[in-house]
């Protein structure tokens, strides 16, 4: 359940920001979730809810999902992440450490493993706003 | 945009008393072997030891340790398996036998992910097998694990010594603590570079003679601990860990 570890990171970060800025009340948090990490959103939401209680913060979460896109550094080809084409073990490995994609994916045009993840890698906090 | 993973790295290492980075200026000096054997020797002495292989583009500690089918357990993070008493984490659990060419930014992201998700629990020592050289990877580690102390490995070769000098100069400049320098694979005592190391102001911890018996012990921690190499390293660590 990698979602729990990521949720812990999110809640820990929000807690520190709230403490540093002396934010009280409800905190509005926008989280960007990259497709490559293949987060189970229900599990992630559950973990955020549980952990918010443990950290004594009251947060409202908004989620923005971002499609993953790769660009070949050799030929410039861009292509999307196709989870369904991958073996389940490889999907799981990429879920845990998205950079492992470089061990298994290749540019569909030239076959190079030298590509960049242009967008949609993992979990980011886009904004944290103190509420009422 | 905030990367939330950065805030939990210190939490994940909270139960770890000391984090030792085994580093070298160049590859091929036996850094991974010394890192793995150090963790095994510490565990043999009854200390709680972990080994983290961050040499992502050329991870070899899994071969040295004979990891076999062991795998981390997912439980609100990743709990490393114990190999011969050593908690062990490596990206090879996820990349398998595949080559993994990573550029600087990807390497940084992978470091952060591994550090943010691995739950070490309580350890006396975490030994980190670092990528060789003075590039992005070393700078990332210094930023991500603030209480790293360094154990530097070289061979008697002038080529290795020159890169170690640069590594030590960098570590001195940024005030990173260095336990000392180990000379590995010594074949002729008259060629030892111990004097050179001391002349540049670093602590020379000792030399390990080249041991042809190591090759046959790779993959078996028990056999590895019985090699002349491990026995000499054990003597050196007695001194080195008193120093720390």
Write a concise keyword list for the protein shown above.
heterodimer, A: 132 residues, alpha+beta, three-stranded mixed sheet, three-stranded antiparallel sheet, 4 helices, 6 strands, elongated, B: 244 residues, alpha/beta, eight-stranded mixed sheet, two-stranded antiparallel sheet, 38% helix, globular
Q: Could you report the average pLDDT of chain A, rounded to the nearest whole number?
A: 94
Helix-and-strand structural type of chain B: alpha/beta
Instruction: List segments of chain B where confidence is low: pLDDT < 50 over at least 5 consecutive residues.
Output: none
Question: Structural class of the secondary structure composition of chain A?
Answer: alpha+beta
- Apparent shape of chain B: globular
- The SSE order of chain A reads HEHEEEHHEE
Please tell me what the overall shape of chain A is. Answer: elongated
How far is the N terminus from the C terminus of chain A? 33 Å
Largest sheet of chain A: 3 strands, mixed
Largest interface: A-B, 33 and 33 residues
Overall pLDDT score of chain B = 93
Span between N and C termini of chain B?
39 Å
């Amino acid at each position: 359940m990698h979602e729990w570890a990521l949720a812990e990171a999110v809640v820990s970060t929000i807690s520190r920001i709230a403490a540093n800025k002396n934010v009280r009340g409800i905190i509005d948090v926008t989280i960007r979730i990259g497709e490559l990490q293949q987060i189970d959103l229900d599990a992630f939401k559950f973990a955020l809810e549980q952990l918010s209680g443990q950290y004594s913060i009251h947060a409202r979460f908004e989620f923005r999902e971002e499609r993953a896109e790769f660009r070949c550094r050799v030929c410039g080809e861009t292509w999307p992440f196709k989870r369904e084409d991958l073996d389940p073990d490889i999907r799981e490995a990429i879920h845990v450490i998205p950079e492992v994609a470089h061990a298994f994916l290749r540019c569909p045009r030239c076959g190079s493993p030298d590509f960049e993840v242009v967008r949609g890698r993992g979990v980011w906090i886009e904004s944290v706003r103190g509420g009422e | 945009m905030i990367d939330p993973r950065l805030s939990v790295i210190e939490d994940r290492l909270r139960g770890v008393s000391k984090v030792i980075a085994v580093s070298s200026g160049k590859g091929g000096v036996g850094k991974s072997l010394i890192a793995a054997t150090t963790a095994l020797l510490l565990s043999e002495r009854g200390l709680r030891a972990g080994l983290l292989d961050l040499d992502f583009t050329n991870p070899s500690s899994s071969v040295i340790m004979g990891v076999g089918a062991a795998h981390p357990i997912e439980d609100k993070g990743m709990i490393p398996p114990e190999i011969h008493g050593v908690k062990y984490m490596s990206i090879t659990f996820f990349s398998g036998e595949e080559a993994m060419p990573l550029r600087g930014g990807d390497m940084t992201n992978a470091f952060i992910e591994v550090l943010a998700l691995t739950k070490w629990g309580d350890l006396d020592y975490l030994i980190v097998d670092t990528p060789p050289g003075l590039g992005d990877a070393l700078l990332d580690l210094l930023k991500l694990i603030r209480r790293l102390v360094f154990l530097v490995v070289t061979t008697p070769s002038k080529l290795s010594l020159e890169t170690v000098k640069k590594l030590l100069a960098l570590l001195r400049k940024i005030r990173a603590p260095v336990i000392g320098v180990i000379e590995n694979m010594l074949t002729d005592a008259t060629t030892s570079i111990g004097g050179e190391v001391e002349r540049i102001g670093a602590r020379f911890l000792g030399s390990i003679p080249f041991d042809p018996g190591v090759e046959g012990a790779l993959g078996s921690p028990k056999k590895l601990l019985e090699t002349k190499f491990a026995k000499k390293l054990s003597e050196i660590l007695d001194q080195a860990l008193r120093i720390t």
